Amino acid sequence: GGVNVNAPRRTFAEVKEMNLGTKVTSKTDKREADYFTVVATITTIAQSADRKPWYEANPDLNSDAKNCKVTSMGDGKWRCEKNGKVYNGYIPRYILRFCATDFTGNIWLTAYDESAQKILKKTAKESETLFINDRPKYEQIFKEAQFKKYVFKCRAWSDVWEDSQRVRYDVLGVQIADPQQESEKLIEKIQFLQNLKNSSN
């Protein structure tokens, strides 16, 4: 992430009503993206035997292409799509897609390596090893991450795919929600919404 921006507290309903992340320029200019913080529970994590939540990344951590995808050449070597170099291995890095729900609705979020590690409590390398050697333990990683409440700091931005615009929501930071703190913030939010309602009547 490394983005230190103001990310006001929002509900998922507000995120949608306020059209956060709908500026087309937000794809190329992250300053045009919208940032928000939300408290939500992970309800579904997208993963299956043929759709693992990581990719094979360039193993050279000193390279400009260190997070870029490498492709198997079939002989145990891996070729980087960005710099064209060939490596003897790769580093698995997470791209974790999951559905999070708050009291107003749900949104699919994407967490990358660092945030995904905080959610799953395992590195992508550890997950990959379990996937190969101990499938029940591997499945357990995802079960344990679900139905917990987290505070997510997110970036909303627009992508255009086959001529249709869609908003993507990336997780920049994540922590387990503190129940006491969150109930106080929720009470404040409800009072704020009721005051708004009363003033408009």
Explain the overall architecture.
It is a single chain. With 201 residues, this protein is an alpha+beta fold. Helices cover 28% and strands 35% of the residues. Strand 4 (78-80) and strand 5 form a beta hairpin. Helix 3 crosses helix 4. It is globular. The model has no long low-confidence stretch (mean pLDDT 91).
Q: How much strand content do the residues show?
A: 25-35%
**Percent helix:** 25-40%
Number of helices: 5
Could you tell me the radius of gyration in angstroms?
19 Å
Strand order of the largest sheet: 1-6-7-9-8
Major β-sheet, in short? 5 strands, mixed, barrel
Categorize the overall geometry: globular
Low-confidence sequence ranges? none
Structural class by helix and strand composition: alpha+beta
- End-to-end span in angstroms? 42 Å
In a few lines, what is going on in this structure?
This protein is an alpha+beta fold. The chain has helices at residues 12-17, 113-120, 124-133, 135-145, 179-200; strands at 34-45, 54-57, 70-72, 78-80, 86-87, 91-102, 105-112, 149-161, 164-176. Helices cover 28% and strands 35% of the residues.
Give me the secondary-structure topology.
Blueprint: H1 12-17, E1 34-45, E2 54-57, E3 70-72, E4 78-80, E5 86-87, E6 91-102, E7 105-112, H2 113-120, H3 124-133, H4 135-145, E8 149-161, E9 164-176, H5 179-200
Helix pairs in contact: 3-4
